[in-house]
Amino acid sequence: MSSNPQSINSQSNSYALTQAGDRYFDGLAEKFSRSLYQAPRGELRLAMLDYLLPEMLSLEGQRVLDVGGGLGQQAAWFAERGHCVSMTEPSADMLNYAKNWHRDVKSLPEGAITYLQTPLQLLTQHAPGPWPLITCHAVLEWLGDPQAALAALSNLLAPGGQLSLMVFNRDALRFSNAVKGNLEKALSDRLAGKGKRQRLTPISPVSHAEIEQWGADNGLMIDAVAGIRVFQDYLRQPPATPEEAETLLALEKQYCRHDPHWRLGRYLLYTLTKSETPE
Ligand SMILES: C[S@@+](CC[C@H](N)C(=O)[O-])C[C@H]1O[C@@H](n2cnc3c(N)ncnc32)[C@H](O)[C@@H]1O
Q: Is pLDDT of 9 > 60?
């Protein structure tokens, strides 16, 4: 028996899904940081976003709402480029991690980032906007109802406003399961994670067809799409030297917006624009 049942309780609670079926990342900040951002796949993701966001968005120093901002990398990226950012995140652990990190980043203009601990579903109350630019990266796949979330994001956007949306690609998850030899799993399409313990397999992976449909339902037009990590996950041998890593990055950049390659990116990155006139 545990000598400290209270900590076990609070830990198992923090790993539970919310009533809405969402997975807040309480208790996961360290693991998420270690297994993603301190690893080559996280480095590649950030390098690709650094390359793609200026290409895919019209950036004019506008205010940014970063939804489910996690450890705060995206908020910092925009703040360093002169945007005022409202970073929102329901997990106190993640938000504190981001705040502490931002405090140490010398290049961040003071006061450029404000923080709000709240889930996406309550943003119409706490940060109604309307916003000229919203980012929501790698969040929808952690929600019980990603379709409703896209509708909520659309409601927060100003007419003509842009949404930078990144989602975990269900089609790529099937492909990578097959490559790893999980053929039964791929065949039966049992791809989603359950959000148990510290597992980082998303509970609601999303397909391009769904984004097309949900976007159209909510007056959002797809302006641009790209695949993030189109090749990296399928390499038989990871790059062994910094030069090989550079070559991989160049390859990813070259094909991330080309059909058919973008379709198998581990993540799909979209720019969606809200129509100027009501539906
Ligand atoms: C995979 S992380 C992505 C973090 C960050 N956007 C990034 O790209 O690194 C998913 C984040 O979504 C947050 N999240 C979960 N449910 C949410 C909700 N209902 N509203 C907003 N964020 C949510 C989690 O707490 C977690 O920080």
A: no
Backbone angles phi, psi at 269, to 5 degrees: -110, 125
Residue 168 gets the label, from left (phi > 0), alpha (psi -120 to 50) or beta, of: beta
Q: Quote the tokens at residue 48.
A: 């690709």
Residue 270 CA, ligand 1 centroid: distance in Å: 17
- Residues contacting ligand 1 via CB (< 6 Å): 22-25, 67-70, 73-74, 89-91, 94, 119-121, 137-139, 142-143
87 with 98: CB under 8 angstroms?
Answer: yes
For residue 229, pLDDT beyond 80: yes
CA of 257 to the centre of ligand 1 (A): 25
SS3 for 195? Answer: coil
> Which residue, 218, 203, 204, 210, is CA-closest to 275?
218
Residues whose CB falls within 8 Å of the CB of residue 124, separated by 6 or more in sequence, listed in order: 152, 155, 156
- Residue 197 banded pLDDT, cuts 50, 70, 90: low
Domains plus CATH for the chain?
Answer: 25-274 (3.40.50.150)
At 143 the pLDDT is 97
